[in-house]
Design a protein that fits this description.
With about 110 residues, the chain is an all-alpha fold. It is built from five helices and no strands. The model has no long low-confidence stretch (mean pLDDT about 85).
Length: about 110
């Protein structure tokens, strides 16, 4: 895993735990009309949207040449920063009902903090 993803793991984990703490103290937020997502699922969607970016084909080719050994498929840096981090979080798997052993809920997860 590239080094900046280790920091992403910690940052997303702390943000998620802080959000869950807020919900415990103040109660759940109302759901958004027309969306069939829980507030916890919306947290993950927002965190993924934070990684939205556009890259040149040359940049993506270079990135994949360096880091494809960390993924099962080719990815852009942003995709890896979202899926790689979320796959390490048991809370993501719980919130979206990901089955154990799948890409987004691997058996072996990385956790530093």
């Amino acid at each position: 895993m590239p080094r900046k993803n280790i920091a992403d793991n910690g940052g997303v984990k702390l943000a998620y735990l802080a959000y869950q703490d807020l919900v415990k103290r103040t109660g759940p937020e109302p759901t958004l009309p027309g969306l069939n997502y829980s507030q916890s699922q919306l947290f993950w969607i927002q965190a993924a949207m934070k990684q939205c970016a556009k890259y040149t084909p040359e940049y993506v080719k270079d990135f994949n040449a360096k880091y494809s050994r960390f993924t099962d498929e080719f990815a852009t840096p942003s995709e890896f920063r979202a899926t790689g981090v979320f796959a390490n979080m048991p809370e993501f798997a719980t919130d979206f009902g990901c089955k154990a052993g799948t890409k987004m809920n691997p058996v072996n997860k990385c956790s530093v903090w």
